[in-house]
Write a structure and sequence with these properties.
mainly alpha
């Protein structure tokens, strides 16, 4: 649970974490500045090529991690269809998928320790003020890691609910089970961190 790094070794794994996070910020900003449908299609094609480059196994894992985004994309598409702004909606959907896919690519090819190292450097000014930054760095990294995990588990809970009650939408009904899953995962991660000495290290800093 602590890491979502892909076991398939790729050329992206060898790129420094700081460089990947910086490029992610630049690429995401570029996606929001790009307003044409053709440009967004080209960007999505480039992202797809990045996933395909390491091979089919890596691409399948990447697509599986992006399944929860399909729901949000569908909702946005339906809204814009209903309001008659199809072109605008297509741009938004493509932008959303490309941005999340790029973030997922960074997550899949970056170790948690490398992300912590980047955050440790970025929070250096806070340490000069006498503040402990290790808990903040660890919290941010775990949030980044857990977002796709919880999204996937939420989707699995929704599918299970629909299988049992096909006439009723899951909606808020899976909120309590999902909260329980999140708490259980948090407890497991806390135990793993204690076993590795992570919390004691954070306390020292």
């Amino acid at each position: 649970m602590i890491t979502l790094t892909s076991p398939v070794e790729t050329v992206f794994h060898r790129v420094p974490a700081g460089v990947k996070l910086g490029l992610l910020c630049v690429a995401t900003t570029g996606l929001f500045l790009l307003g044409s449908l053709a440009g967004q299609l080209a960007a999505l094609g480039l992202v797809a090529a990045l996933y395909a480059l390491p091979g089919a196994r890596f691409a399948r894992a990447g697509l599986a991690a992006l399944r929860p985004v399909a729901l949000f994309a569908a909702l946005i598409a339906v809204w814009h269809l209903a309001t008659g702004t199809v072109a605008e909606g297509a741009v938004i959907v493509l932008r959303l998928v490309s941005a999340v896919a790029l973030a997922n690519l960074v997550t899949m090819t970056t170790r948690l320790s490398d992300m912590l190292a980047v955050l440790h450097g970025l929070t250096a000014p806070l340490r000069r003020l006498g503040l402990r930054t290790r808990p903040l760095e660890l919290a941010i990294s775990l949030v980044i890691r857990f977002i796709p995990v919880l999204s996937a588990k939420g989707a699995a809970l929704a599918e299970s609910y629909r299988a049992r009650s096909p006439r009723r939408r899951p909606g808020w009904r899976i909120a309590a089970p999902l909260a329980g899953v999140a708490l259980d995962d948090a407890e497991r991660v806390a135990e793993a961190l204690r076993a590795r000495g992570g919390l004691s290290e954070g306390a020292k800093r």
